[in-house]
Amino acid sequence: DGGITQSPKYLFRKEGQNVTLSCEQNLNHDAMYWYRQDPGQGLRLIYYSQIVNDFQKGDIAEGYSVSREKKESFPLTVTSAQKNPTAFYLCASSTASQDEKLFFGSGTQLSVL
Amino acid sequence: RKEVEQDPGPFNVPEGATVAFNCTYSNSASQSFFWYRQDCRKEPKLLMSVYSSGNEDGRFTAQLNRASQYISLLIRDSKLSDSATYLCVATRGGKLIFGQGTELSVKP
Questions:
Q1: Closest-CA residue in chain B for A47?
Q2: Do A42 and B94 touch (CB under 8 A)?
Q3: How many CB atoms lie within 10 A of CB B92?
Q4: Distances from the Cα of B90 to the Cα of B23, B65, B95, angstroms
Q5: How many C-beta atoms lie closer than 10 Å to residue A81's C-beta?
Q6: Which residues contact residue A27 at a Cβ distance below 8 angstroms, ignoring those fewer than 6 apart?
Q7: Using the beta-carbon criterion (under 8 Å), do A101 and B34 form an inter-chain contact?
Q8: Do A41 and B96 touch (CB under 8 A)?
Q9: Residue A49 has pLDDT above 60, yes or no
């Protein structure tokens, strides 16, 4: 079955540590996105990529980094520079056409130890 | 001011009620609009796109008013299973911008 897989489901980070969240899709979608969701709030865009080897900052990119070496994969690294990383992280993909419906992974809950 | 703003929740309604959610967007260049549904701690799922002429899908009706930059979602004959958070979404330059969501709780 086609879909988006995020791992791990739960992740804990120690102070000063970088952690990487995985996102893989087999939908053959060109565009991929990372969103952050805090309790009681909507989704805020961290980074997005519309083609391989290219990505753009979203509205809250500080403290995060990404890569897009393969069409299927868009990992997100939460660096030690992100001082408030505890949140629910959602990866999504789309065909990047004008009617930009997003397909989401099941999310990763990141917490700080 | 948030780029996409929704009615604050939560909405608590009895089964069978009709409930309406409102949403405004500030960027007049936004082209596409959607409603997503999100269950607690799950990923959002597309409920329906919103078209200028208005569109209906069973008990759900979406409306768009570009002049007022306003989007609405009407749910008729509410079911217990409709309890969720409803997210309004507008596109901006190839990106989807989400509202903060409105929580709906349908009670027996």
A1: B95
A2: no
A3: 17
A4: 10, 13, 8
A5: 11
A6: A2, A3, A4, A93, A103
A7: yes
A8: no
A9: yes
Secondary structure class of B5 (helix, strand, coil): strand
State the CB neighbour count (10 A cutoff) for residue B96: 25
Structure tokens at B66: 């570009």
A42:B43 CB<8 A: no
Per-residue pLDDT of chain B (108 residues; tens, 9 = 90+): 789 999 878 999 999 999 999 999 998 888 889 999 999 889 999 999 998 888 999 999 999 999 999 999 999 999 999 999 999 999 887 788 899 999 999 999
Q: Given A33, A41, A105, which is nearest B43 (Cβ)?
A: A105
Which chain A residues have a beta carbon less than 8 Å from that of B46? 101-102
One-letter-per-residue 3-state SS of chain A = CCCEEEECCEEEECCCCCEEEEEEECCCCCEEEEEEECCCCCEEEEEEEEECCEEEECCCCCCEEECCCECCECCEEECCCCCCCCEEEEEEEECCCCCCCCEECCCEEEEEC
Among chain A residues, CA nearest to B101: A42
Residues of B in contact with A35 (CB under 8 A): 98
CB B21 within 8 A of CB B10: no
Nearest CB partner across the interface for B43, out of A100, A101, A104: A104
